[in-house]
Amino acid sequence: MVRFKHIKKTQKYYFMKMSGVRMLASSPMLLFLLSLLMASYFDTTAGQIGVCFGQMGNNIPNPAEVVAMFKQYSIPRMRMYGPNPNALNALRGSNIEFILDVPNGDLKRLADSQAEANTWVRDNVQKYNDVRFKYISVGNEVKPGEPGAAALFQAMQNIDRALSAARLSDIKVSTTTFMRAFADTYPPSRGRFKDEYRNFLQPVIGFLVNKRSPLLVNIYTYFGYMNRDVSLEFALFQPNSNNEFTDPNNQLRYQNFFDANLDSVYAALEKSGGGSLDVVVSESGWPTQGGPGASVPNAEAYVNNLRLHVNKNGSPKRSGKPIETYIFAMFDENGKQTSPNDEYEKYWGMFSPTTRQLKYGVKFN
């Protein structure tokens, strides 16, 4: 909270109440400063939701239409999985906060050459100086044994150096992992990184701590329900689930599967020297067809309950702290390669790509 210490007695005073705290301002300059403070306050306590813009389909609207839809529905943040010049141009001046991924296939090339990393930043970030880049996610769900695993840490360092050289060091560099990287997630206090993931993520955690960047994690409660690990109610944030529990190691109470997943990530970070890190939930959603429990009503319940939860509650381990979260996804993607057992992968979209209409009721702000 900002305190105004030295105010002349001859000035006229105004009082305003915000969240139960009386704030003192003087006219006219301090009223201006107060307005900036209030804007900052509301920016950090509301609107934590973004949406992922996947493009694996032959009927996805063009990027200009998509950006217009983000504006129409007051969606303040977007994640995109690789550079797309048309989309980046459409985002110019939009004021939409933006996560841009470095595709996994580029990690080794960018790790092997600082010049290549400099070129990537120049062509995909610096060139678009009126786009609100928030994070660069270097890789998405990188797995042990993939070429990108050995290259990940160096690629992150090279991208970070390139951003600094371009005077863009306010853009945070991170990577995106997923729940498969963690073990012993029940109860959440036991959570840890699997050894094969910790081997290449440990230096990444040190990098994030040093740079004060968050870790991005994809969290899907749907898979817990699909695998019959938890009830539908527990996965959908619905009350009075028979899966509710108290963690015996810290007495924290868990009423939904999302919080249990998230706090197991925090526990794993604490065990790996990353206890100071924030977690951004870079994907979460529910499919509308193609699998057990995949339906429009369940997707509607999940997305709306998620939106309300992350904007105000926080998790038991970080109670009261809003959780920056990105819903997956904007559209169904008919270009995804699936088998009969994972047909649901095509149907995470909140919007129909052909009609551009919401498939169910949801508010984003």
TrEMBL record:
Keywords for the protein's UniProt record, in alphabetical order: Glycosidase, Hydrolase
Listed InterPro entries: GH (IPR017853), Glyco_hydro_17 (IPR000490), Glyco_hydro_17_plant (IPR044965)
Lineage: superkingdom: Eukaryota
Recorded family membership: Belongs to the glycosyl hydrolase 17 family.
Catalytic activity: Hydrolysis of (1->3)-beta-D-glucosidic linkages in (1->3)-beta-D-glucans
EC number: 3.2.1.39
GO molecular function, one term: glucan endo-1,3-beta-D-glucosidase activity
Residue ranges the record marks as coiled coil: none
Organism: Brassica napus
Name this protein carries in UniProt: glucan endo-1,3-beta-D-glucosidase
GO BP, sorted A to Z: carbohydrate metabolic process
Gene (name only): BnaC04g24330D
Enzyme class, first EC level, given as a word: hydrolase
